[in-house]
């Protein structure tokens, strides 16, 4: 197919780019590697020394450390505050690795080849004392109409900020048309909407009282509260929220209360950042070790996303993996890799029957596709040919293919049309939409 051919060309470009980079960096890396090696002894061509030690470090290190790879994200690197000095990393080769390498290594080996051997033989890399992670920021719409889509994107590998308006009362009614009764009367209060969000987050929890994932309560519009009573109002607001949730398991997710004034450079923004760092370091997946052989495929996926590829079939991902000199071993491990990438927000991959044949490389595609189906009356003014279908959807929840096609044509997003079948399958699987039951004359469904 056209998509497959495009990806094949991309694979070739990736390989050509990789070889070009290897060639230009070979001398620099070789020099650096030689500078790091403190001592390696040879006896009749056999390696006797079992450690490659950076020349800045004189400490002895255990060979029991496991490979460490920081979790990837989609936006930017973050570094938690640290007062500890940075130590040089130690690379240790166990006896099995040495025996496998000794017959292959020689003075003419390039650094890339050495690194390949290192990866293949599970070289052990000690973590730097200053740890880094990649930060991916997601901004969720708070309206109830998006509630059913939350499960598509929420994950336990995250820290959540539940943002509330401190200028309102927790018992105020929410200005959301989805919370209206038949007579147009508002039904939902602020604290009830907060509870709905917390229930969504709680659905990701490994256990009912684990406190994972953590939630920070962030209050905004501090400037609208009279300065004289400001701190009292803030404290009472957060206390009321917690009291209303005290008998429910979702309360275990609430960690901190932080009030922010966005009209000025509020020093409490720094407090919020530091608290995010602290909570991140305490999560069970912080510093989680992953196989180094995952890196080439991860880089390939990032390159595909950057080139505009939004969706790929599982078979194409398999082909890209097979084309790499360092590859993921089998389908089972590939599924684990893709599930991990899904959990950290890099891609969307549902490892369930009916959905595991495709990988959404750009999650924004799914977000935009679902969001586009939530339309207002202005859509009908511009698309009178589907007036009947729109009112059936708006009033009765009946979604037709004709309406979907009309909406996506208006959006001018060909990727929606190209992946319509898969998007609809995802919506069905996650119970965002459902096919109505039909019955035969004898009453069977």
Polypeptide structure, described:
Residues 291-433 form the COR domain. Keywords: Repeat. InterPro entries: COR-A, NOL4/NOL4L, P-loop_NTPase, WH-like_DNA-bd_sf. The protein is globular. 42% of the residues lie in helices and 9% in strands. The chain has helices at residues 2-36, 95-102, 111-120, 150-153, 190-202, 230-245, 268-282, 295-306, 314-323, 331-343, 363-372, 377-382, 387-396, 401-411, 414-418, 420-429, and strands at residues 42-43, 46-47, 51-52, 76-78, 91-92, 124-125, 133-135, 160-165, 215-220, 254-259, 311-313, 358-360. It has 16 helices and 12 strands. A 3-stranded antiparallel sheet has the order 3-5-6, with no helix packed on it. β9 (215-220), α6 (230-245) and β10 (254-259) form a beta-alpha-beta unit. The longest helix has 35 residues, at 2-36. Mean pLDDT is 72; it is low at 36-129. With 445 residues, the chain is mainly α. Among the domains are: 36-134, no CATH class; 158-282, P-loop containing nucleotide triphosphate hydrolases (Rossmann fold, 3-Layer(aba) Sandwich), CATH 3.40.50.
């Amino acid at each position: 197919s056209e998509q497959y051919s495009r990806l094949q060309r991309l694979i070739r470009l990736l390989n050509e780019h990789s070889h070009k980079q290897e060639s230009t960096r070979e001398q620099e890396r070789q020099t650096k590697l030689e500078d790091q090696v403190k001592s390696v002894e040879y006896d009749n061509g056999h390696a006797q020394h079992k450690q490659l030690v950076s020349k800045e470090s004189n400490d002895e290190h255990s060979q029991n450390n496991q490979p460490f790879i920081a979790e990837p994200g989609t936006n930017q690197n973050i570094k938690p505050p640290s007062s500890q000095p940075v130590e040089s990393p130690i690379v240790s080769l166990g006896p099995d690795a040495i025996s496998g390498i000794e017959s292959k290594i020689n003075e003419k080996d390039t650094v890339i080849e050495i690194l390949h051997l290192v990866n293949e033989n599970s070289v052990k890399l000690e973590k730097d004392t200053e740890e880094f992670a990649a930060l991916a920021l997601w901004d969720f719409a708070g309206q109830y109409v998006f509630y059913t889509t939350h499960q598509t994107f929420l994950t336990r590998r995250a820290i959540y900020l539940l943002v509330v308006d401190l200028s309102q009362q927790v018992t105020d009614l929410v200005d959301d048309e989805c919370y209206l009764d038949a007579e147009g009367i508002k039904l939902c209060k602020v604290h009830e909407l907060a509870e709905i969000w917390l229930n969504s987050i709680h659905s990701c929890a490994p256990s009912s009282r684990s406190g994972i994932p953590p939630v920070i309560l962030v209050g905004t519009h501090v400037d609208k509260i009279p300065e004289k009573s400001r701190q009292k109002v803030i404290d009472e607001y957060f206390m009321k929220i917690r009291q209303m949730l005290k008998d429910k398991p979702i309360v275990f997710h609430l960690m901190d209360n932080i009030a922010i004034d966005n009209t000025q450079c509020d020093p409490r923004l720094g407090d919020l950042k530091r608290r995010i760092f602290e909570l991140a370091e305490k999560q069970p997946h912080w510093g989680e070790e992953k196989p180094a052989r995952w890196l080439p495929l991860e880089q390939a996926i990032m390159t595909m996303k950057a080139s505009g590829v939004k969706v790929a079939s599982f078979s194409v991902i398999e082909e890209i993996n097979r084309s790499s000199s360092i590859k993921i071993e089998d389908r089972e491990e590939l599924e684990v890799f893709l599930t991990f990438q899904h959990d950290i927000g890099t891609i969307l991959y549902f490892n369930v029957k009916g959905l595991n044949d495709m990988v959404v490389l750009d999650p924004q595609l799914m977000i935009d596709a679902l969001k586009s189906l939530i339309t207002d009356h202005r859509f009908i003014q511009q698309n009178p040919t589907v007036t009947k279908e729109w009112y059936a959807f708006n009033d009765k929840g009946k979604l037709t293919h004709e309406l979907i096609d009309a909406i996506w044509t208006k959006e001018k997003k060909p990727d929606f049309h190209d992946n319509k079948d898969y998007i609809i399958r995802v919506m069905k699987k996650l119970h965002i939409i459902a096919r109505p039951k039909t019955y035969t004359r004898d009453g069977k469904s």
